[in-house]
Design brief:
alpha/beta
Length: 201
């Protein structure tokens, strides 16, 4: 009887994976068809109407995107899994105001003290490693690599590697790209089409 239960459970898991958590190509954002963009059904997106996507974007499973302040993902952005992109943060305001937090607008002030809100913008062909947090008022340049488990807030230029809590610049992603392009020189025109000329150091 145990073999029947284990067989049933194995098949049940396969069907759930195949039917519920399969990532397929084709999305739509801001009235544009995105035939090469993929969003996992296991991703949670709040206020999706404020999410702006380019094509070739990948949003993997178990990510949380809170888009109330606007999130923009450039061409080819990859968000792996278990990441959070948030456009507001209320915990400071909640601690300052206590039970007055929910009644604050009635006091005549427009914004709660300690409230942080703002957009998130991630440049083309950037990579967000697993378990990372991208906070409000963050802008990442193209080709940015965010290492797993990093907490990111602020403006960063193109091609940086970010790591840590809080994240700091630890390198330039073009260094690794150069090594790969030496192995695959035929790919240089494709790389330079989005990244621009690859300068020699």
């Amino acid at each position: 009887m145990n073999w029947l239960r284990s067989t049933f459970n194995r098949w049940r898991r396969r069907w759930v994976r195949a039917l519920l958590y399969r990532v397929v190509f084709g999305e739509r954002s801001q009235g544009q068809d995105l035939p090469h963009t993929r969003i996992s059904p296991a991703a949670c997106i709040e206020q999706e109407d404020k999410l702006t996507l380019a094509d070739h974007v990948y949003i993997g499973p178990f990510n949380y995107l809170e888009c109330s302040g606007g999130i923009t993902l450039g061409e080819g952005v990859q968000i792996t899994s278990h990441c959070s992109l948030v456009t507001h943060s209320s915990h400071r305001a909640a601690r300052l105001l206590g039970e007055g937090f929910v009644r604050w607008p009635a006091t005549g002030f427009a914004e709660r003290p300690g409230w942080i809100a703002g957009p998130v913008e991630i440049g083309p062909y950037s990579f967000i490693g697993p378990h990372s947090l991208i906070e409000a008022n963050t802008k990442l340049g193209k080709g940015t690599l965010v290492c797993a488990g990093s907490f990111v807030r602020g403006d960063y230029p193109d091609f940086v590697i970010l790591e840590g809590r809080p994240a700091r610049v630890v390198g330039d992603s073009r260094r690794a790209d150069r090594k790969l392009l030496q192995r695959y020189p035929e790919l240089l025109p494709l790389y330079e089409a989005w990244a621009g000329p690859l300068d020699e150091d």
